[in-house]
Amino acid sequence: xxxxxxxxxxxxxxxxxxxxxxxxxxxxxxxxxxxxxxxxxxxxxxxxxxxxxxxxxxxxxxxxxxxxxxxxxxxxxxxxxxxxxxxxxxxxxxxxxxxxxxxxxxxxxxxxx
Length: 113
Hints:
The chain is an alpha+beta fold. The protein has one domain. Helix content is 27%, strand content 11%. A two-stranded antiparallel ribbon has the order 1-2. The radius of gyration is 17 Å and the shape is globular. The two termini are 32 Å apart. 0% of the residues are buried.
């Protein structure tokens, strides 16, 4: 692990939940998949892991990688003061009539904006 970030959310993920409690987005960057797996294996069901995970209610967990193989992302440079980081976690295959080509075209246009 070499980069650990936490962002306060201004939009609640699930309005059915208690909106009086703050929601945070935590991101940890690892050198590679092996490092990620090693940390998970070493923490396992330890008392330290239990103590940490008892401090919050996890809503979503995902492991991500850059969309384009061979590119890098540096979490310390992903946003600067005053910018908004938008995080969306969804399974697009569940959308009715999902069209991969249409998605890729629109995503590329959005990222170039």
